[in-house]
Amino acid sequence: MADEEMNTQQDDSAIEDLKERILAALETVIDPELGIDIVNLGLVYGLNLDEKGLCTIDMTLTTMGCPLTDVLTDSIHQALAKVPEVKDVNVNLVWYPAWDTSKMSRYARIALGIR
């Protein structure tokens, strides 16, 4: 195996590890109304970490006009502050595709009694 190919695999592994740690941190952000974290609710649509440490989270809410937007955004900032590679956080609220219960994990559907 060429050194360049091995470095690429190591880089990919490091990126996947970092993504998993960011998602684990986001799993500590609980929707106060539903009592389930935003990852298992399927509210996180995407994440990106640039070379300067800016983590951009694309997420939605269960309903437009949700009064908990600021609470969730603050909780996301606090959770990601525990990931050393993340220097700053930008939360983008998106409304497409619209959220529905099919985006929830099996765990979240069972916890909320949704089939």
UniProtKB/TrEMBL annotation:
Superkingdom of origin: Bacteria
All copies of domain MIP18 family-like, residue ranges: 19-92
InterPro entries: Fe-S_Maturation_MIP18, FSCA_dom_sf, MIP18-like
Residues spanning the membrane: none
Gene3D superfamilies: Fe-S cluster assembly (FSCA)
Pfam family membership, one: FeS_assembly_P
PANTHER family in UniProt: FE-S PROTEIN MATURATION AUXILIARY FACTOR YITW
Protein name: MIP18 family-like domain-containing protein
Organism: Latilactobacillus sakei subsp. sakei (strain 23K) (Lactobacillus sakei subsp. sakei)
